[in-house]
Hints:
Elements: H1 11-29, H2 32-39, H3 43-50, H4 53-66, H5 71-76, H6 81-96, H7 106-112, H8 119-141, H9 155-174, H10 179-191
Helix pairs in contact: 1-2, 1-4, 1-7, 6-9, 6-10, 7-8, 8-9, 9-10
Organism: Streptomyces noboritoensis
DNA-binding region: 31-50
Keywords: DNA-binding, Transcription, Transcription regulation
Amino acid sequence: xxxxxxxxxxxxxALNAAMLTFWARGYEGTAMSDLxxxxxxxxxxxxxxFGDKEALFxxxxxxxxxxxxxxxxxxxxxxxxxxxxxxxxxxxxEAVAGDHTxxxxxxxxxxxxxxxxxxxxQEYLTGLREDGVRCLADRLDSFSDADGLPPGSNTxxxxxxxxxxxxxxxxxxxxxxxxxxxxSVADQAMACWPNRGGRLAGRARRRGA
Length: 209
């Protein structure tokens, strides 16, 4: 027996188009008509392939976090507490102020304006943020004395500080702040980052300096 009718879309291209649309417009600002236009698919085909808008959005967020938004993973792989913070901030700037993608952060943009009827989406995005804070705090806790923070450092607060800074950088990028200005903000934040012995992290630059 012949197989069913072959699909007429590329799932990877369709998801990428959906990601860019949600990234530019946020969750609430994206209508199904925006998605059908961007993805080149009818609404029934989108529903059949990816589920409803919320289900599609969750798949898009996973794609974003594995791709443009993977700066958390890059930061967690660094060998010192200073490098974790520096990589997190500067890699985030590259992601939220890229040359070929919408400015801002898909997750931050979507979390800023979620209608009460979309509370599951709000809970999902809040959970992602809190997971990020916990992952950063755990990583900061994991370093030996030589590579870590001064004794008594509040790693949970420092982790939340980093996440808050990245959220602010994303909002600034979305409102038109230039990339180099955002990198300067990240440099200034690192100048105030605590180091072993109570020293500050100083002027180490983002590109391996």
